[in-house]
Amino acid sequence: MSLEVREVNKVYNRKLILDRINLQIEKGEFFVVLGPSGSGKTTLLRIIAGLEKPDNGKILIDNTDVTNIPAGKRNIGMVFQNYALYPSKRIWDNLFLPLESSGMGKEEATKRIEFISKRLGIDGLLQRFPGELSGGQQQRVALARALVKTPRLFLMDEPLSNLDAPQRVSARKLIKEIQEEYSITSIYVTHDQTEAMALGDRICIIDEGKILQIGTPEEIYDDPADEKVASFIGNPPMSLLDGSIIGEKGNIGVRAEDVILEEGDMKGKVINSEFLGDRYLVHISLGSEELMAFSKVRLREGVEVSFRISKFKQFR
């Protein structure tokens, strides 16, 4: 199914939370909404789900206006940050209840539960309670509960934030596999740009209720729309510098991998070097500004280095 968000506005306590949001999400797309805390991304997801109504604008699913249709009638699967499992009910019941509420018979529901629980590797956990499971297991149960209804739209709100780093990596892989396997149109909200870049077919960057840029991970990384996007995307983000250092007007953004050390006639002093495993991230002082570069060896603080910039993004 396709989804359109058309001219959506939302105000809370006289504060504009969403400002004329327009999105067109294609059938089967994995679409990531990325932004810092308080940017409006969760409010947007709740409006799409039908848990809140916009003050203005429309939500269309397959070209049908669903703005005033209750959440329970939109056939949407949703995974929340806290998983929202019923603590007093066994895992089997957590999966069965949404099917029962939709009017599905027990025999058909049992078949679906058995299928999805086996696919997600939780078939051995069905008689346990949520409190008896690890964070990673609870996350899989939450995914199963959202998918067991075969939703036409899959919404995820920071679903990996409670997992440790190794669990997040494996969970990202699982989510992407499931989404591709079922071809479910999916919207994933996160503040983590690594998750966004790893998962999204396209990414929408939102801040202070406004869309800053929409594009593929590659487009946003290589050609950020403005300095705010440039400073948010990438690990490390772009170094933002006065363009006059290379004879350009305005400001420029430079990726660390585009700084070639020990070449060229530009010079700076090393502030420090961070060990990253296979290389070092070197912070270089250019007087009042700072440039980041990668190096295969540790460079000592205070050492003067020469460099050249092979590629940059110019901001007007």
TrEMBL record:
Q: Which GO terms describe its molecular function?
A: ABC-type ferric iron transporter activity; ATP binding; ATP hydrolysis activity
The GO cellular component terms are: ATP-binding cassette (ABC) transporter complex, substrate-binding subunit-containing
Report the domain of life of the source organism: Archaea
What keywords were assigned to this record? ATP-binding, Cell membrane, Membrane, Nucleotide-binding, Translocase, Transport
Keyword rRNA-binding part of the UniProt annotation: no
Listed CDD domains: ABC_Carb_Solutes_like
* Name of this chain's protein: Trehalose/maltose import ATP-binding protein MalK
User: What species was this sequence derived from?
Assistant: Sulfuracidifex tepidarius
